[in-house]
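User: I'm designing a mutation panel for Flavodoxin-like domain-containing protein and want to avoid disrupting the core. Could you give me a predicted structure to guide residue selection? Please restate the sequence first so the numbering is unambiguous.

Assistant: Good idea. Sequence first, for numbering, then the predicted C-alpha cells:
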Amino acid sequence: MDASAIILGAPTVLAGAHPLAVYTAHLIKALRPPTRFAAVLSSYGWAGSAVKQIQEILETSKIEIVGAVEVNGPPRKEDILDIVDLGRQISKKIKESLSA
C-alpha cells in the first residue's frame, strides 16, 4: 500500500465498530504502510462508538488522523457537507506534505 491517505468506513454494530473495520485497522497498524494521513467515517443507529474504537487502534501508528465524521441514521445534507470538508482537509494535508 502506497497511498498518502486512508479513509476507513466503520459502521457501528452491536456497540462497536464493524468487525471487518476493526480487522482492517489492526492490519494497517501491523503492516505500518508509509501512509501519513487517515480519516474515519461512521454511521450508527442508537449509539456511536466506532470512530473512537478505530482511532484508539490507530493512535499508536505514525498515521495522523485528520478527522472523523459520525452520522446518526441516513446522512443529511449537513453530513454530506462535513464529509466533503473532511476530504478537502485530507487533500490539503497531502499537498502540504508533498511540498515540504
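For picking mutation sites, this is relevant: DSSP finds three helices and five strands in the chain. Strands lie at 5-9, 12-13, 16-17, 37-44, 64-72.
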